[in-house]
Each structure stands twice: as C-alpha cells, then as structure tokens.
Amino acid sequence: MRAVIQRVSSSSVTVDGRIVSEIGPGLLVLIGIHESDTESDADYICRKVLNMRLFSNETTGKGWDQNVMQRNYGVLLVSQFTLYGFLKGNKPDFHVAMPPDKAKPFYASLVEKFQKAYNPDAVKDGVFGAMMQVRR
C-alpha cells in the first residue's frame, strides 16, 4: 500500500461538477492499493497517517509536534490506483494495483478504519473509480 500525504489548508473532491467531499485544514491522502495488500497493511497505513506529527504545537510553538487528531483537523482519503503505475515503454502499466472488484471493498474498509480510529465526521473520501478533480 502506498500513501501520498499532503498537509492542506482545505481540500475537496469534485465529481461531474459537484463537490462530493471537502475538509478544512488537515491531510489530503492519496491511497494506492497493491494486489498483495492485506488488512495488516491497511491497519499500518491508518495508524501511521493518523499519528504522524506533521503540525506545529500552537501552545509551545514547537514544530512537527502534533498529529491530525490532536489538532482536530480533517482527513480526505482519495483512492489512486496510478500510484502503482510503471512505465512499460511509453505506456503506463497498472498490473500490480489491486483489481477494482477487490480494491473497492478493501478501500471502503480502509475508510471505515480511519473513521473508527479517529472521528467519522472528520474523515472524508472521494468516489471510488470515478474521474475526480481534487483541489488542495
């Protein structure tokens, strides 16, 4: 499993011209699922993303001191199979990404893990398999 994590002041996902999810300050996380990923990989990613100290402590002024949960910020998860793309000549090859029929329920369970570990209202996601526009 791969996760690309970006701190954002706000972020949203738009599908067919309609905003389907948005957060204020927090983390935008692009998630790539490998064909061999397991629940333990999902647990690891969830734990790491939620506990990474990426934010300054406003009380002490210390940088890189607080995680997204301590700041009560949002998390926007976006499925991104292209994180497992490889160039095969001049064409990308995604054969090591988990197939969509398996990846969709796996991704849904990952979103649930984040919501249970943190706050269901603070964790948002895009639309699996849709052509999404992600604004950060």
The CATH superfamily is known as D-tyrosyl-tRNA(Tyr) deacylase
Question: Fraction of residues in helices?
Answer: 10-25%
CATH topology: D-tyrosyl-trna(Tyr) Deacylase, Chain: A
What is the number of helical segments per DSSP (H or I, 4+ residues)?
2
Tally of domains: 1
Helix/sheet category? alpha/beta
Q: Major sheet, described briefly?
A: 4 strands, mixed
Order of helices and strands: EEEEHEEEHEE
Q: How much of the polypeptide forms β-strand, as a percent range? A: 25-35%
Terminal CA distance reads: 22 Å
Number of strands: 9
Short description:
With 136 residues, this protein is an alpha/beta fold. It has helices at 39-51, 100-117, and strands at residues 2-8, 11-15, 18-23, 26-32, 74-79, 86-88, 91-93, 123-125, 133-135.
